[in-house]
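hey m, so remember when u said the tokens were messed up on ur end? i reran from scratch. heres the input so u can diff it against urs
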Amino acid sequence: MGHELAVVVAVLIGIVAQTPALKWVRVGQREHYLPGRIGPFFALWFRASFVNQALLVVGLVLLVGSFVQSFGTEVHLVIAALLVICLLLTPFGLGFRGRTSPLALTSRMRRLLVAVGLIDVIVTLVGLVVGLPLAFALLAGFFAPAVVELALIATRPLEDHLLQRYVDDATERLLRVRPRVVGITGSFGKTTTKNYLATLLEGSVRAIASPASFNNRGGLARSINERLVPGTEVFVAEMGTFGPGEIAALCSWIPPEIAVLTALGPVHLERFGSEASILRAKLEITEQASVVIINIDYPRLALAAKALAGSATDRRIVKVSAIQLDADVTVKPNEEGELVVYLHGQKLAKIDAGDIAPTNLACAVAAALECGVAPEALQSRLGLVKSPANRLVTAVVPDSGVEVLDDTYNSNPAGARRALAALQRRGGEAATKFVVTPGMVELGKRQYPENYALGKAVGQVANQLVVVGMTNRIALMEGAAEAQATAEGTRLDAVVSVKDRDSAIAYIKRSAKSGDVVLYENDLPDHYP
């Protein structure tokens, strides 16, 4: 092969070798462009499949071969071509554009792609200087996850700077409109509580709430800039966090007068390391609040309520519960399938329990009262409260007659237990009950035991468990196997493993008949294996 042709082929191979980075760029986008998230997903994909482990080993051997200078040009090109094929396949199952969560070519994504390209060019230029341009181009392709991680770190200051002008606009608008701010946080139940509260405020207070799960810096700035208008009396802000200091930073420009803590659990334990760290991060919402509404059914939150009440500040603590009648607001189920709302132990109203989350409703009732809604007005609004989309919403499929419980937004141990209880209440004796789930994620060291427990719990309620994907397959199936091995109390007839959401839906369409009940518990996007 002539030298010029070899160079052209080498350049083309080097360019193609960079395309696998698109897979990891999409992972970065799905993980909110947070540095540090590519590595865990790299590990997750290669733990999940022997094929991916084999591809990684083969790719590494070929990469080493590309640096062996004693090989001729033709051999290097063959090695490079094989390595490119290996990189395009790796990790097997992770697509370039995706099905359930396609790559969105936003302005931020374009800037990230430019940064990835610049890093690849720099690595290749270094290779050119040392006389190994093809090998270094392949090196950049092989380490695409690390390249994307570096690009996320490099672009973070620029993205923060670009976002700041929207934050400044939102801050100025808040100062001009001057609504009372209700800040809501918690390990889970934030969006549900926010939606309940918005329903209870309607008709009594001019209020707006941040939409969907817009609960970070960019989402809240957008909510304020697009929705906050003169005359708004209350702004309800859902506040999420992936790390310490994030809620404190939000509160520095959206200071809540009323802070609500809905729940505490192992959600994002993988990021925080301990529930104590999660609690400290969530308590940042209370630092400027004059009223703190706190769910004391969680022991750590109960202790936090005592500590806050005993601190040398004038903030007022409002305790809510689904168990204790001596709380300020209690929403407690009764034996007739109703939820009874109590204020300071006195009955206010009863509503059909449906699939309403009692403690989330208690938080919303307490916040509505603090916002000036009269108890009498609350009585008429309570019956209008309903679950937000994909959070234990029930419907009957018209054509098939199958009842579906949609709890796909996310999942946590407490929410999964509540969803299984809802499934247990439904369907007649002849009904087949299905649970379709990929399990729960971001639980750190508790991920295996919690998913094992979920698989076991499904065995007490459902006839069939459909495990989606590889992420928690072993834990769910081993938990289900224990349930099946325990003859007493188990209903589980079959455990089915499918590769993805589409396969699960196809299985349900083939298997479920009129009168059957299907719980879809959690739904991981396809950047999870």
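this time it looks ok to me. The first strand starts at residue 180 and ends at 185. if urs says something different then somethings off w ur setup not the seq
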